[in-house]
Amino acid sequence: MSAVRLGGMALGNGVLVHGPEYWACAIRAGDGRLQLASGRKPIRAKDANRIVQGALRMAEVFALLPVVRRRLPDAELPFGRPRVAVAMIGTLAGVRLLRSSRLTPALQEALGSLLALGPAAIAMRGTELAEYHGAEHITIGSYEHGEPRQREHERCGSHLVGPLLITSAAGSFLARRAPRSLRPFARIGAAVGAMAASVEVFGWMVKNERHPVSRALARPGHELQHRVVTAEPSSEQLDVAQAALQECLRLEIGELEEARPLQSPDDGDRDEAPPPA
To answer: Which among 102, 121, 181, 267 would be 20 to 30 A from 275, CA to CA?
Structure first.
């Protein structure tokens, strides 16, 4: 049986894994116990029209966050931290300053796109979130490749950075040329279009990872992934990611599929996960 195509998201205290139809999330609560919840996705992009599929792929992930929060109240969502909110406000202020500067429009938009990466980097760097991000990559990558993998993953969302910097800058530059009364709507359309285009380019990059253009586009995201947004996880964090993976696979293929163990037998016993809510 071929591997189920999976995606994931790291939380501050756990991992969310999702497949074409279902999702599963495992967290380590404050008392040390492993908590698990799962279900069917509220939005599914797999059968959508190709034109809107890129945007829907992003929407289906973010639509899971309120569901996870409701099912697992102890879950620490990645952008729920005060310092991230402050960074986002700072980013908006910085973009406004750039747009009122004397820099060329193209340079303004390029710098604005780079500045927009700040909240994500602040959210992860030097935290358990980065470690759970590494656990997510190791677990999903080891399952997909059938062998132990490192914490960098070829389909990590960080690889969208290269395409997104280009498409966002181009879209924002074009939106500036719209009539002033229509400019706010043009910027919204440009942002949605840039994301959809970036997802399509990213899909091409995954299929053509050895192509020189693909490697060049992936380089910024790879460096961000390696140096900032992932860290080596503990065996307990790998346990959490493994629980989410196996529960998602149970729902996707109708039976529990064992993945390769990622810790040694003497790592100690873990708390048994409760059944899905």
So the answer is: 267
Q: Are 238 and 262 in contact (CB under 8 A)?
A: yes
Give the model confidence (pLDDT) of 66-93 as tens digits: 999 999 999 988 766 666 666 666 666 7
Q: Give the strands of the sheet with 14-18, arranged side by side.
A: 7-11, 14-18, 22-28, 34-40
Among candidate residues 204, 248, 229, 246, the one with its CA nearest the CA of residue 152: 229
Q: Which of 259, 276, 240, 230 is nearest to 126 (CA)?
A: 230
Tokens, residue 128: 């358990």
pLDDT, one tens digit per residue, over 229-258 is 788 899 999 999 999 999 999 999 874 444
- The pTM assigned to this predicted structure is 0.68
Three-point CA angle 169, 58, 41, nearest 5°:
175
User: Which residue in this structure is represented by tokens 């358990």?
Assistant: 128
73 vs 121: CA distance, rounded Å: 25
C-alpha distances in Å from residue 3, one per residue of 6, 180, 183, 210, 243: 9, 50, 45, 22, 17
28 vs 2: CA distance, rounded Å: 30
CB atoms within 10 A of CB 127: 17
What's the one-letter identity of residue 263? Q
Phi (first) and psi of residue 17, to 5 degrees: -120, 135
